[in-house]
Design a protein that fits this description.
Length: 298
Protein backbone atom coordinates (compact mmCIF):
# COMPACT_ATOMS: atom_id res chain seq x y z
CA UNK A 1 0.00 0.00 0.00
CA UNK A 2 2.82 2.36 0.92
CA UNK A 3 4.67 1.66 -2.34
CA UNK A 4 1.55 2.46 -4.36
CA UNK A 5 1.17 5.78 -2.48
CA UNK A 6 4.82 6.59 -3.22
CA UNK A 7 4.36 5.90 -6.92
CA UNK A 8 0.97 7.62 -7.29
CA UNK A 9 2.08 10.73 -5.40
CA UNK A 10 5.20 10.95 -7.57
CA UNK A 11 3.08 10.54 -10.72
CA UNK A 12 0.64 13.22 -9.51
CA UNK A 13 3.50 15.66 -8.89
CA UNK A 14 5.09 14.92 -12.27
CA UNK A 15 1.85 15.60 -14.17
CA UNK A 16 1.07 18.80 -12.22
CA UNK A 17 4.62 20.10 -12.67
CA UNK A 18 4.57 19.27 -16.40
CA UNK A 19 1.28 21.07 -17.01
CA UNK A 20 2.11 24.25 -15.11
CA UNK A 21 5.55 24.61 -16.74
CA UNK A 22 4.00 24.55 -20.23
CA UNK A 23 1.23 27.01 -19.26
CA UNK A 24 3.62 29.41 -17.49
CA UNK A 25 5.98 29.42 -20.47
CA UNK A 26 3.09 30.21 -22.82
CA UNK A 27 1.84 33.06 -20.60
CA UNK A 28 5.25 34.65 -20.05
CA UNK A 29 6.80 34.15 -23.49
CA UNK A 30 4.12 33.57 -26.13
CA UNK A 31 1.68 36.13 -24.68
CA UNK A 32 4.44 38.34 -23.26
CA UNK A 33 2.85 38.79 -19.83
CA UNK A 34 5.03 41.52 -18.22
CA UNK A 35 5.35 40.27 -14.64
CA UNK A 36 6.27 36.83 -13.32
CA UNK A 37 5.93 38.35 -9.82
CA UNK A 38 2.22 39.03 -10.35
CA UNK A 39 1.73 35.53 -11.78
CA UNK A 40 3.35 34.05 -8.66
CA UNK A 41 1.24 36.34 -6.47
CA UNK A 42 -1.92 35.11 -8.20
CA UNK A 43 -0.93 31.49 -7.58
CA UNK A 44 -0.37 32.20 -3.87
CA UNK A 45 -3.74 33.96 -3.60
CA UNK A 46 -5.52 31.03 -5.27
CA UNK A 47 -3.92 28.56 -2.84
CA UNK A 48 -5.07 30.64 0.16
CA UNK A 49 -8.66 30.93 -1.15
CA UNK A 50 -8.92 27.22 -2.06
CA UNK A 51 -7.68 26.00 1.32
CA UNK A 52 -9.67 28.59 3.32
CA UNK A 53 -12.92 27.56 1.63
CA UNK A 54 -12.05 23.86 1.87
CA UNK A 55 -11.52 24.21 5.61
CA UNK A 56 -14.78 26.14 6.01
CA UNK A 57 -16.78 23.30 4.43
CA UNK A 58 -14.68 20.76 6.40
CA UNK A 59 -13.19 19.17 3.34
CA UNK A 60 -9.70 19.58 4.83
CA UNK A 61 -8.41 20.37 8.31
CA UNK A 62 -5.34 22.19 9.62
CA UNK A 63 -4.49 24.16 12.82
CA UNK A 64 -5.77 27.72 13.24
CA UNK A 65 -3.36 30.65 13.17
CA UNK A 66 -1.54 31.03 16.51
CA UNK A 67 1.28 33.17 17.87
CA UNK A 68 3.87 30.44 17.28
CA UNK A 69 2.65 29.40 13.81
CA UNK A 70 5.24 31.48 11.99
CA UNK A 71 7.99 30.02 14.19
CA UNK A 72 6.79 26.51 13.37
CA UNK A 73 6.87 27.08 9.63
CA UNK A 74 9.95 29.33 9.30
CA UNK A 75 12.02 29.47 7.05
CA UNK A 76 9.71 27.76 4.54
CA UNK A 77 7.75 30.91 3.50
CA UNK A 78 10.89 32.82 2.50
CA UNK A 79 12.30 29.83 0.63
CA UNK A 80 8.93 29.23 -1.04
CA UNK A 81 8.73 32.82 -2.29
CA UNK A 82 12.26 32.65 -3.69
CA UNK A 83 11.52 29.33 -5.37
CA UNK A 84 8.35 30.61 -7.05
CA UNK A 85 9.73 33.96 -8.20
CA UNK A 86 13.10 32.83 -9.54
CA UNK A 87 11.51 29.76 -11.12
CA UNK A 88 9.03 31.92 -13.03
CA UNK A 89 11.78 34.42 -13.86
CA UNK A 90 13.98 31.68 -15.30
CA UNK A 91 11.03 30.33 -17.30
CA UNK A 92 10.55 33.76 -18.84
CA UNK A 93 14.22 34.42 -19.67
CA UNK A 94 15.42 31.03 -20.99
CA UNK A 95 14.33 28.57 -23.65
CA UNK A 96 12.54 25.55 -22.18
CA UNK A 97 15.28 23.01 -23.08
CA UNK A 98 17.98 25.13 -21.38
CA UNK A 99 15.72 25.94 -18.43
CA UNK A 100 15.13 22.21 -17.93
CA UNK A 101 18.79 21.26 -18.30
CA UNK A 102 20.00 23.86 -15.80
CA UNK A 103 17.26 22.98 -13.32
CA UNK A 104 18.93 19.60 -12.86
CA UNK A 105 21.68 21.28 -10.84
CA UNK A 106 19.02 21.53 -8.09
CA UNK A 107 19.22 17.74 -7.82
CA UNK A 108 22.89 17.87 -6.83
CA UNK A 109 22.13 20.64 -4.31
CA UNK A 110 19.28 18.59 -2.84
CA UNK A 111 21.46 15.50 -2.52
CA UNK A 112 24.15 17.48 -0.69
CA UNK A 113 21.60 19.07 1.68
CA UNK A 114 20.04 15.66 2.38
CA UNK A 115 23.46 14.29 3.34
CA UNK A 116 24.23 17.13 5.77
CA UNK A 117 20.78 18.07 7.12
CA UNK A 118 18.74 14.85 6.93
CA UNK A 119 21.70 12.46 7.32
CA UNK A 120 20.58 10.48 4.26
CA UNK A 121 23.36 8.64 2.42
CA UNK A 122 22.52 8.05 -1.28
CA UNK A 123 23.69 4.86 -2.98
CA UNK A 124 26.45 4.82 -5.60
CA UNK A 125 23.88 4.33 -8.39
CA UNK A 126 21.89 7.35 -7.23
CA UNK A 127 25.02 9.49 -7.03
CA UNK A 128 26.14 8.33 -10.48
CA UNK A 129 22.81 9.25 -12.07
CA UNK A 130 22.83 12.69 -10.38
CA UNK A 131 26.37 13.44 -11.56
CA UNK A 132 25.37 12.37 -15.10
CA UNK A 133 22.48 14.86 -15.06
CA UNK A 134 24.72 17.68 -13.89
CA UNK A 135 27.39 16.79 -16.46
CA UNK A 136 24.80 16.98 -19.24
CA UNK A 137 23.52 20.33 -17.96
CA UNK A 138 27.09 21.67 -17.89
CA UNK A 139 27.81 20.55 -21.47
CA UNK A 140 24.54 22.11 -22.63
CA UNK A 141 25.22 25.39 -20.81
CA UNK A 142 28.74 25.75 -22.20
CA UNK A 143 27.36 25.47 -25.74
CA UNK A 144 24.19 27.53 -25.26
CA UNK A 145 23.99 29.89 -28.25
CA UNK A 146 21.17 31.88 -26.65
CA UNK A 147 23.13 32.63 -23.45
CA UNK A 148 21.21 34.91 -21.09
CA UNK A 149 23.11 36.01 -17.96
CA UNK A 150 20.01 37.13 -16.07
CA UNK A 151 18.25 33.87 -16.90
CA UNK A 152 21.24 31.84 -15.66
CA UNK A 153 21.34 33.89 -12.45
CA UNK A 154 17.61 33.28 -11.88
CA UNK A 155 18.04 29.54 -12.44
CA UNK A 156 20.98 29.32 -10.02
CA UNK A 157 18.87 30.95 -7.30
CA UNK A 158 15.84 28.85 -8.27
CA UNK A 159 17.97 25.69 -7.87
CA UNK A 160 19.19 26.81 -4.45
CA UNK A 161 15.69 27.67 -3.21
CA UNK A 162 14.19 24.49 -4.69
CA UNK A 163 16.74 22.24 -3.00
CA UNK A 164 16.32 24.07 0.31
CA UNK A 165 12.52 23.98 0.04
CA UNK A 166 12.32 20.23 -0.56
CA UNK A 167 14.67 19.42 2.32
CA UNK A 168 13.06 21.79 4.86
CA UNK A 169 9.60 20.68 3.70
CA UNK A 170 10.55 17.08 4.49
CA UNK A 171 11.69 18.12 7.97
CA UNK A 172 8.48 20.06 8.64
CA UNK A 173 6.29 17.20 7.38
CA UNK A 174 8.13 14.74 9.61
CA UNK A 175 7.45 16.95 12.65
CA UNK A 176 3.67 16.87 11.89
CA UNK A 177 3.05 20.25 13.59
CA UNK A 178 0.92 21.80 10.85
CA UNK A 179 0.22 18.93 8.47
CA UNK A 180 0.26 19.02 4.68
CA UNK A 181 -2.55 21.56 4.25
CA UNK A 182 -1.31 23.80 7.05
CA UNK A 183 2.13 24.06 5.48
CA UNK A 184 0.60 24.99 2.12
CA UNK A 185 -1.83 27.52 3.60
CA UNK A 186 0.55 29.36 5.92
CA UNK A 187 3.37 29.30 3.37
CA UNK A 188 1.22 31.39 1.05
CA UNK A 189 -0.48 33.44 3.77
CA UNK A 190 2.74 34.72 5.33
CA UNK A 191 4.29 35.63 1.98
CA UNK A 192 1.39 37.20 0.09
CA UNK A 193 1.72 40.55 1.93
CA UNK A 194 5.47 41.07 1.29
CA UNK A 195 5.02 39.80 -2.27
CA UNK A 196 2.24 42.31 -2.94
CA UNK A 197 4.35 45.17 -1.55
CA UNK A 198 7.29 44.10 -3.71
CA UNK A 199 5.09 43.98 -6.83
CA UNK A 200 3.73 47.47 -6.08
CA UNK A 201 7.15 48.97 -5.30
CA UNK A 202 8.79 47.51 -8.42
CA UNK A 203 5.99 48.63 -10.71
CA UNK A 204 5.15 45.07 -11.71
CA UNK A 205 1.57 45.32 -10.44
CA UNK A 206 0.96 48.44 -12.56
CA UNK A 207 2.52 46.77 -15.61
CA UNK A 208 0.29 43.75 -15.14
CA UNK A 209 -2.79 45.98 -14.65
CA UNK A 210 -2.07 47.78 -17.94
CA UNK A 211 -1.43 44.54 -19.83
CA UNK A 212 -3.22 44.66 -23.17
CA UNK A 213 -4.52 41.07 -23.38
CA UNK A 214 -6.80 40.92 -20.31
CA UNK A 215 -9.77 40.81 -22.69
CA UNK A 216 -8.16 38.00 -24.70
CA UNK A 217 -10.19 34.89 -23.81
CA UNK A 218 -7.48 32.25 -24.60
CA UNK A 219 -4.94 34.20 -22.51
CA UNK A 220 -7.42 34.62 -19.65
CA UNK A 221 -8.17 30.88 -19.65
CA UNK A 222 -4.47 30.04 -19.45
CA UNK A 223 -3.84 32.63 -16.72
CA UNK A 224 -6.65 31.18 -14.59
CA UNK A 225 -5.37 27.67 -15.35
CA UNK A 226 -1.92 28.67 -14.10
CA UNK A 227 -3.40 30.02 -10.85
CA UNK A 228 -5.39 26.81 -10.29
CA UNK A 229 -2.51 24.54 -11.21
CA UNK A 230 -0.29 26.49 -8.79
CA UNK A 231 -2.45 25.08 -5.99
CA UNK A 232 -2.30 21.52 -7.36
CA UNK A 233 1.45 21.80 -7.87
CA UNK A 234 1.92 22.77 -4.21
CA UNK A 235 -0.34 19.98 -3.01
CA UNK A 236 1.28 17.32 -5.20
CA UNK A 237 4.76 18.51 -4.14
CA UNK A 238 3.88 18.23 -0.44
CA UNK A 239 2.27 14.82 -1.00
CA UNK A 240 5.22 13.46 -2.98
CA UNK A 241 7.74 14.70 -0.40
CA UNK A 242 5.64 13.21 2.41
CA UNK A 243 5.68 9.71 0.91
CA UNK A 244 9.11 9.85 -0.73
CA UNK A 245 12.46 11.54 -0.09
CA UNK A 246 13.09 15.18 -0.90
CA UNK A 247 15.65 14.04 -3.49
CA UNK A 248 13.00 11.91 -5.21
CA UNK A 249 10.63 14.90 -5.39
CA UNK A 250 13.38 16.95 -6.99
CA UNK A 251 14.14 14.30 -9.58
CA UNK A 252 10.48 13.60 -10.38
CA UNK A 253 10.29 17.28 -11.27
CA UNK A 254 13.30 16.69 -13.50
CA UNK A 255 11.93 13.47 -14.99
CA UNK A 256 8.75 15.09 -16.31
CA UNK A 257 11.02 17.63 -17.93
CA UNK A 258 12.17 14.97 -20.41
CA UNK A 259 8.94 15.55 -22.32
CA UNK A 260 9.15 19.32 -21.90
CA UNK A 261 12.76 19.32 -23.11
CA UNK A 262 11.88 18.03 -26.56
CA UNK A 263 8.49 19.73 -26.71
CA UNK A 264 10.13 23.06 -25.82
CA UNK A 265 12.32 22.89 -28.91
CA UNK A 266 9.18 23.48 -30.96
CA UNK A 267 6.45 25.24 -28.95
CA UNK A 268 8.13 28.44 -27.70
CA UNK A 269 10.33 29.36 -30.65
CA UNK A 270 13.27 30.59 -28.52
CA UNK A 271 15.53 27.51 -28.63
CA UNK A 272 18.67 27.82 -30.81
CA UNK A 273 19.89 24.39 -31.92
CA UNK A 274 23.50 23.24 -31.84
CA UNK A 275 24.77 19.66 -31.80
CA UNK A 276 26.90 20.08 -28.67
CA UNK A 277 24.04 21.76 -26.77
CA UNK A 278 21.66 19.02 -27.93
CA UNK A 279 24.16 16.36 -26.79
CA UNK A 280 24.42 17.91 -23.31
CA UNK A 281 20.64 18.00 -22.95
CA UNK A 282 20.42 14.31 -23.91
CA UNK A 283 23.16 13.30 -21.45
CA UNK A 284 21.12 14.98 -18.72
CA UNK A 285 17.99 13.12 -19.87
CA UNK A 286 19.84 9.78 -19.63
CA UNK A 287 20.82 10.60 -16.05
CA UNK A 288 17.17 11.34 -15.20
CA UNK A 289 16.01 8.02 -16.64
CA UNK A 290 18.76 6.15 -14.77
CA UNK A 291 17.73 7.68 -11.45
CA UNK A 292 14.07 6.88 -12.07
CA UNK A 293 14.91 3.24 -12.80
CA UNK A 294 17.11 2.92 -9.71
CA UNK A 295 14.52 4.56 -7.41
CA UNK A 296 11.25 3.02 -8.59
CA UNK A 297 12.26 -0.44 -9.80
CA UNK A 298 11.50 -1.88 -6.36
Amino acid sequence: MLNSKKTLSALFYGIASFMITIVNKTILTTYGFPSFQVLGLSQMFTTIVFLFLAKKIRLVNFPNLQQNTFKKIFPLPLIYMGNVFFGLGGTKELSLPMFIALRRVAILMTMVLEIYLLKVKPSFKVQFSVYTMVLGATVAAVNDLSFNLQGYFFIFLNNFFSASYYVFLKRKLDSKDLGEYGLMYYNSLFMIGPTLLLAVYSGNLENAYNYQHWNNFPFLCQFLSSCTMGFFLNYSMVLCTSYNSSLTTTIIGSLKNIFITYLGMFIAGDYIFSWSNFLGINISVVGSLTYSYVTFRK
